[in-house]
Design goal:
heterodimer; A: 239 residues; mainly alpha; globular; B: 309 residues; alpha/beta; Rossmann fold; VC0802-like; 6-stranded mixed beta sheet; 4-stranded antiparallel beta sheet; 10 helices; 14 strands; elongated; binds adenosine-5'-triphosphate; binds magnesium ion
Chain lengths: 239, 309
């Protein structure tokens, strides 16, 4: 576990040492804030209601792009520059590298989400806010982020090109966001159930409704775990 | 650390990069890996570090298979391409390397300072690695390889990109480390092998074609040596026939160098031939003005072993 932490720390430090990191962070906060406050019928002024429902719906989509942008270089760059060889010939296991990168992603996402507490604070000034819904909303976002991060790291393990890794992550994301849901409405029986189960939206909505069910938690965590296992496999295979 | 390599085989697709290589390295030995481009040196080294799994064969350290135990913290490795985190400051990178190799946290500052001194990084230590020149990056690569005081050091073309002064220093450093540790280094600079290595292993097309000391290799390759002598006294004919009668001498050839006549003796008697030439001159009352053994160049040996017919 110590090695995982060493890898994660170096990754976070490296991330925040580049200007691009801050640009990305500002973009994330900017888009999330813009849509939450000013756009669409659902925006907070229009609703005259002190809750963060809109924010949680929007954040799902800004994270959808933000997280692959964070993870895209993590393993791709390591393989392109050959530093993965340097790492793995030291006393580090491949899984420790992969999990370290995952942990780093979660820390970066957590930092970004921490900054969105400003929205929470502002809304709470407008009226009585439902604290319980906010907590489960953030739990939902973190679980969703874990799944996105797993997918992003997997994508980063199969290409040496960051942009390709980004696009792969987005494609897999779309699969879970739309395709599964759309197909599920056509299919019936076991296949229909399976597709419905794969639909990321359904699980996210469940949690947003304020019910943190083990099955939904398990769904997000297994998606993350699958991503990491496959990443481990590809790093090993593509040495 | 003692290293045993047994029947390593490694293919990339159709191509056999390493094709049944076996050898042993004793503790404290410095071994030079030679071979033409694409011979399989880097691949063999990557297998020894544990980075690549061989298709067949095994690597043993002190008699224990590398499959049974993790030896990586006892190995220091400088890859051929010297990959480094270019966004990291030199000192941070060395600390990271030490931590990943299980150096206790309390010893890390001292180890980092030592590496900066030993590898001549003093003036550049506060720079980011991406800002360093190639030679300085090579020094950082070397520093990260030895920061945890490994028992086995594997260096893939360690002096590439270094200036002549630094090459001499790094060779000295390798020799110093080699007194107590086992070192495997690959290079294309043949004098480098002679200057640093106890033993030479030549690989060609994935196979081992030679494994001995530089001296033995020369003898083995040619079988005979040359001795240039210049003698004063007697006639040219007398000299020729007397030299020709020495039993270990197989051929006598006259050469003119700088206006003086010398004899080139082809022989296989080693130092005995020289002794006999000396005795001959004493016997006849001739003066031996010059006697120079001419060594076959390592380049020639290398070419003989690795040239395609
Ligand atoms: N990742 C790889 N994929 C496919 N083939 C490879 C790979 N790495 C090496 N090879 C092939 O294996 C053979 C041996 O390569 P290797 O790098 O071990 O040679 P080398 O002796 O280190 O050569 P050089 O002196 O040029 O460094 C070469 O023919 C090379 O093309
Ligand atoms: Mg090589």
């Amino acid at each position: 576990m110590k090695k995982v932490w060493i890898i994660a720390r170096r990754e976070v430090e490296s991330y925040f040492s580049s200007l691009a990191a801050y640009v990305l962070l500002v973009l994330f906060l900017g888009f999330t804030g813009f849509f939450t406050w000013l756009r669409g019928n659902g925006d907070i002024f229009f609703r005259k209601q002190a809750d963060l429902e809109v924010f949680f719906a929007i954040a799902m989509w800004t994270l959808f792009f933000f997280i692959p942008a964070v993870t895209m270089r993590m393993l791709a760059e390591e393989r392109r520059s050959g530093t993965i060889e340097m790492l793995l010939t030291k006393k580090v296991q491949t899984w420790q590298v992969v999990v370290g990168k995952f942990l780093a992603t979660m820390l970066i996402v957590a930092a970004a989400l921490l900054l969105t507490l400003i929205y929470y604070y502002s809304v709470s000034r407008l009226g009585n806010i439902d604290h319980g819904a906010t907590i489960s909303g953030y739990i939902g976002l973190l679980l969703l982020s874990a799944a996105y991060a797993g997918i992003g790291i997997f994508a980063s393990s199969i290409s040496k090109n960051q942009i390709v890794a980004f696009l792969i992550a987005i494609s897999i994301g779309i699969l879970f966001q739309f395709i599964a849901g759309i197909l599920a409405s056509d299919a019936t029986g076991v296949v229909g159930d399976l597709l419905a189960y794969l639909d990321i939206n359904r699980h996210y909505q469940n949690i947003q409704r304020g019910v943190v069910d083990t099955r939904d938690v398990l769904y997000f965590l297994s998606l993350a775990a699958m991503g990491l296992l496959w990443a481990d496999y590809f790093i090993e295979r593509k040495k | 650390m003692q290293v045993q390599i047994r029947n390593l085989v490694k293919s990339y697709g159709e191509q056999r990069a390493v094709d049944g290589i076996s050898f042993e390295i004793r503790r404290g030995e410095i071994v030079g890996f030679l071979g033409p481009n694409g011979a399989g040196k880097t691949t063999t080294m990557k297998i020894i570090t544990g980075y690549l799994k061989p298709d067949a064969g095994e690597v043993r350290f002190d008699g224990v298979s590398s499959m049974e135990r993790d030896f990586r913290h006892k190995i220091g490795y400088l890859p051929e391409t010297n990959p480094l985190y270019t966004d990291m400051p030199v000192i941070d990178y060395l600390k990271l390397s030490a931590r990943l190799q299980d150096v206790p946290e309390s010893e890390i500052p001292a180890r980092v300072r030592k590496m900066i001194e030993v590898c001549g990084l003093g003036d550049e230590k506060h720079k980011t690695i991406g800002e360093l020149s190639k030679g300085y990056r090579q020094r950082v690569g070397l520093a990260q390889a030895i920061i945890h005081d490994p028992e086995l050091l594997i260096l893939d073309e360690p002096t590439s990109g270094l200036d002549p002064n630094q090459i001499v220093e790094i060779r000295q450093l390798i020799r110093e480390i080699g007194k107590t540790k086992t070192v495997i280094l690959s290079t294309h600079i043949l004098p480098e092998v002679e200057a640093t290595c106890d033993r030479i292993i030549i690989i060609h097309r994935g196979k081992l074609v030679a494994d001995s000391t530089a001296g033995d290799l020369r003898r083995q390759a040619e079988g005979k040596s040359l001795l240039t002598v210049r003698i004063e006294g007697g006639t040219s004919e007398e000299q020729r026939s007397a030299l020709g009668r020495i039993s270990s001498v197989q051929g006598v050839e006259s050469v003119m160098e700088g206006g003086v006549q010398k004899w080139k003796l082809e022989h296989e008697g080693g130092d005995d031939t020289a002794a006999e030439v000396f005795d001959l001159c004493v016997q006849r009352g001739w003066k031996l003005l010059e006697m120079v053994p001419q060594q076959q160049k390592l380049e020639d040996v290398f070419r003989a072993l690795t040239m395609e017919n």
